[in-house]
Amino acid sequence: MKLSEILKELKANTFTCSTGAQLLAEQPTKDEVSHAHMHSLDPFNVDIAKIKPASFQAPSTLDVTPLALERQRFWQNPELHLNPKGAHPHQSQVFDPATKAPSTFKPYEFYVDETRLASNDTYLKRGMAEIAEQSVTTYSQKLIYVPSKGAKPTSADFPVAGKTDTAAVPTGGTLTKALPVQAKVTKIHPTYQKMEAHSMFEDSEVLVMSTSAAILSDAGLLMLTELHSKPVGTYLAVFSASAVKAVDAAFKKTTGAAPLRMVERTPASVSVNTTGPQPKLETAGATYARTDMKRVVLVVKKDASDDLIIVTCYPSQSDPVLPVTMPPTPPPTADDDVVEIEKGTKFQVVKQKTAIDLKW
Question: Which residues contact 233 (CB under 8 A, 6 or more apart)?
């Protein structure tokens, strides 16, 4: 969907949740160009009675009841959308969107669009800052010296500040010979910030409504207006407290439900594998918890065709991390929205003027 078209709808007050659903449905998901869908917890509710043994090829040696139960468990797996493609080939059957045809059907498999599976661990980092590989150079100089009167000569390496500096002989010692200063280059692998819990909306309906509310907010309009005038490939973001209020109000109005909560998936353990050319995060096991939602974080990008890319949209308990050197003035309150005008450097606080009215 064209960014210019969305801006027209916002100004004409015709942008609805249905528009937001269409926008999300059109997102390119291959290689995580957009990974907003990975922040929706959507396990399929499957009736075991409707899984017929005749509907798939099953070796006669297998008991069909456990097989059907196993397939049900796979469909209801809330982590299905987080599985890297090819990680569990016995659990997923690739569906080709172009030909509308699945691969050869095999036991224990089910239909999955491979382009919507994680291709790497990008969705885990969610744009958190990463320190690129650095080369650190240190200098030292070997000195041959007599430590004290009557002692035998000895040698040792002493750190120096730079190539042209000279090491000092230890107090009481007498220099015999100073060798040339040596440089040592140490490479530091990329370092990731402490990994946050992977947060998800309760389901795709809440994802659609939250994305729509963030776009409909005054902060969302400012963000998209700024993006429209910036170069192709520019990333901007909005941290919206008003979107949370709008979605809560919509659910209360139609269902009387309590305020929505977000789901946090926390890895049981996290390590950084530095054996390969590209160090990557590795996780083992996870726990789930439901907790209150403070903000909807919407990250967008403009592509070469003027299409709006929803890079990601996720629920957050945290306020945005603002730069220390150029913080927005005045600082945001818990009810304010924050727009990222320049990635990581310039932010603007926006106070929502009127309540966001979500319509389908």
Answer: 301, 302, 303
Residue with tokens 């040592």: 184
C-alpha span between 240 and 237 (Å, rounded): 9
Residue for token pair 């402490």: 194
Q: How far apart are CA 33 and CA 307, in angstroms?
A: 12
How far apart (Å, rounded) are the C-alpha atoms in residues 127 and 263?
A: 19
CA 46 to chain centre: 29
Which neighbouring-strand residues pair with 272? 281
Band of residue 321 on the pLDDT scale cut at 50, 70, 90? low
Q: What Rg value do the Cα atoms of the chain yield, rounded?
A: 28
Pairing of strands 111-112, 182-188: unpaired
Among the residue ranges 58-62, 134-138, 256-260, the one predicted with the least confidence is 58-62
169: left (phi over 0), alpha (psi -120 to 50) or beta: beta
Token pair 């000195």 is at which residue? 143
Spatial CB neighbours of 334, under 8 Å, sequence gap ≥ 6: 241, 294, 319
Question: Is residue 248 scored above 50 in pLDDT?
Answer: yes
Amino acid at 349: V
Q: Which residue has the higher pLDDT, 147 or 71?
A: 147
Residue 140 CA to residue 96 CA, distance in Å, equals: 60
Q: How far apart, in whole angstroms, are the C-alpha atoms of residue 360 and residue 358?
A: 7
Q: How many CB atoms lie within 10 A of CB 41?
A: 22
Residue 339, burial from CB neighbour count under 10 angstroms (0-12, 13-18, 19+)? buried
* Residues of the chain by 3-state class (helix, strand, coil), percent to 5: 25, 30, 45
Strand, helix or coil for residue 159: strand
- Here the tokens at position 132 are 């690129």
Residues 6 or more apart whose Cβ sits within 8 Å of residue 26: 1, 307
- Rounded to an integer, what distance in angstroms lies between the CA atom of residue 259 and that of residue 292? 8
Identify the CA nearest to 138 among candidates 188, 182, 184.
184
Q: Decide if 308 contacts 6 (C-beta within 8 A).
A: yes
Lowest mean pLDDT among 6-10, 37-41, 60-64, 335-339: 60-64
Structure tokens at 170: 């230890």
